[in-house]
Amino acid sequence: MAGLEVLYTHCADSISCGHDAVVCFVHWELIKGGFRCIGSGDEARTSDKKSELLPSDWSSNKELYTLRYKPADSDTLFMLKGIPIDAALLFNFMNTSNQKVFDLVVNISDYIVAEQLRTFDSAYKDVSSFSQKVRSQLLPPPEAAPGGSQRRSPTETQRDRRTPDSDPLRAPHRHPPGTRPHWSDPLDPPFAAGGADLNPFGSRGGGGMIVDPLRSGYPRSGFDPSSGIPDILPPGAVPPGARFDPFGPIPRHRPGPDPDHMPPPGYDDMFM
User: Fold this and answer.
1) What tens digit of pLDDT does each residue of 170-203 get?
2) In the list 149, 156, 205, 243, which could disulfide-bond 184, CB 3.0-4.6 Å?
């Protein structure tokens, strides 16, 4: 890889284990991604300056690698920390301005030949896969990196152009796009049967129930619940045309014996 071999040769005296070789590789991927290293450790120093090289003491602490970076065209500070975990190395790359963190776990044996670290050609293996892994998991996307371009990927652009009907989490509409069913139209299956039930105030095609006795076309009594029911409902309690299921004899005070007061034939036990 152009540049990595020069960097590795420059840092060869500081590379003594597979973890060091991994940090060197990750550093170069950050440099290619538009970042520049300004120093090691958590604290800023007067000697800090943007550079493509690793600082002289970058591998002095084998238990925690800490490097500071800034984009080449901005002053936003990024912190890279590498934590050895058995035969792996865990990286955290944090944007200190918004605390956003990108993570990467590298199994040393997958990409490093630990017994042959003296030369660049023998130290690394499967370099292309290693590079892709670092770029996809550790480097911020272009729009997340200060100073980076705001270009959006074709997938993101397509996602932004989705209509509500294309949302996989949204229940699909049961009608053609851009139209609304006419619930009251008896010639518009499948919405005609039962469609008017959804309108409590009724419609010209019916309302209240699928088979509405008030709109069946047969003669019916002059009872209109919207005018009110004495001692039961005041006038206007039932909207005109709305479904109404009587909950008692109508009218309540009618002449003659009340059928509810007549015992059934053979009734002689009040506790039955």
Assistant:
1) 665 555 555 554 544 444 444 444 555 555 555 5
2) 205
